[in-house]
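Render this sequence as a predicted structure.
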Amino acid sequence: MTSVAACVGVDPFGMCHGTANPAALTAFGAATEGLAAYRTDAMPAVERALAAEPRMLAALALKGLMLLLACRTEPLAAARAVWQALPNATRTDDEAALCAALGAALARGPLAAATVLEAHLARRPDLLLFVKLSTMLRFVGGDARGMWATTAQVLPAWAEGQPGYGYVLGCHAFALEEAGEYAAAERFGRRAVEIAPHDAWAIHAVAHVHEMTHRPADGEAWIEAQRPGWKGCNSFTYHLSWHLGLFHLDQGRYGRVLDLYDREIRPDRSEEYRDFTNAVATLWRLRQHGVDVGGRWQELAEIARRRREETVLVFAALHRLLALIAVGDLAASRDVAAALAAAAKGDDEQALVAARVGAGLADALLAAAEKGAMVPLAGLSEQLHLLGGSHAQRDLFVRSLALMAERHGDRAALAGLLAARRRLKRDDRFLDLLAA
């Protein structure tokens, strides 16, 4: 058992620590802002904090959570190692909550961790790190309503000029966008960027508004105008470029999408799940529009084959399935589907996702690829939000299900899918194609 320690030191963003080491506290503050801004120096700042204070509980817990959020087998194993190495020492309330969140994430999943953080935010709503981590965990866990509830709860405790205020506004903006509150989302997002020009998440929230309200030219102009702000962030730059690609796609500029893919969306062979899903989602949409993408699928399929039994994140596993289907590797595709079916028998959060939507969606995609067969689509679209990610990202699966329904004459399923899509997104080229 650990006892509660007094607050000995406070970092630049107000979190209480059991150490007064100034180098450790400064580095931890840099890690907090680095995480909020998606900068490349977030994990190095954590390591600097640990170099100054090797037993710094908050730095260890944050390192574990950052590794866990990578949602791949190797970082997850490293996060478990961090958890096992946590010192059994007295902890401040803030440290205890952060450590408990790591434990909950490893035991059950991201939503359990977010619940722990939010219970602490009810008492300490002014902790930037907890607000940001809650948003990230709810996003991965597919709980947009939870994101909105949390940011709406803490926002009254924040004020202009408070360190981190812009980043909190950015979190709130994205939560509003995912709830369909587009005008408010754009207003909060733009204000967030005015305060924190390097807040890639807020830039991205406004880009989402443009995507969902079918304003591709405005969205393209917005992202290009914000390049000085997002140029220095981590691989989230690839995701912002993905949004730019969507705006080009919506305007029928397929050649520009492919050029952007090579230069900015997939400039390397990263296996980080966000980078991989950006790439797959771009090529799959182009495939649906009948665009020849050359040999670009091959390197994605190689990664998917190596990770075909990995189910750490169902959302990522389904993108690996798409890459394998695209190159016609049905044997490996069946392995992905089998892995998801096996994962559905577990008892953690991702097992529930696999059981309620992942395994069924994999079966539908595989059946369509193998022999043009059709499996029941009823209920799948209503469960897609459980996969995590955004409406714009999950739209890939909505489009795929709609095409399946259209090709097999399932008018009821098609009408339901398109109605659900139109509730969140205004008409675009894909809807026009299906309507025709």
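Summary. The chain has 24 helices and two strands. Residues 274-436 form one domain.
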